[in-house]
Design brief:
The protein is α+β, with helices and mostly antiparallel strands. It has one domain. Helices cover 49% and strands 23% of the residues. The strands form two sheets. It has a three-stranded mixed beta sheet. A two-stranded antiparallel sheet has the order 4-5. Strand 4 and strand 5 form a beta hairpin. It is elongated.
């Protein structure tokens, strides 16, 4: 009887892990394209005004949902910004 309970618990655990693996990818870590651009502008503006430089993570790749597909892009790929005299200027491509 105890063996049946242990085997059933292991099977339930494996099924739960498979379900979480399949559906867990779409739950977190992916930003909407426009939302991510807004975050990039905010991050760049803050970093420029405080340090006079771009953020250290400016060229880091992140998951972005672009037209229904997940792509990897950096903030530098999404928008073009410059920092002069602690004033940020960002051009968002259309």
């Amino acid at each position: 009887m105890a063996l049946v309970v242990v085997v059933a618990a292991i099977v339930i655990l494996i099924v739960a892990l498979i379900i979480l693996t399949i559906f867990g990818v779409g739950i977190g870590g992916v930003s909407d394209y426009l939302t991510q651009r807004s975050i990039c502008v905010s991050t760049y503006t803050s970093s420029c005004s405080v340090t006079g430089t771009e953020p250290p993570t400016w060229n880091s790749q992140m998951q972005v949902n672009e037209d229904g597909s997940i792509v990897y892009k950096s903030c530098d790929d999404l928008i073009q910004c410059s920092c002069t005299d602690r004033e940020a200027t960002c051009n968002i491509p259309t």
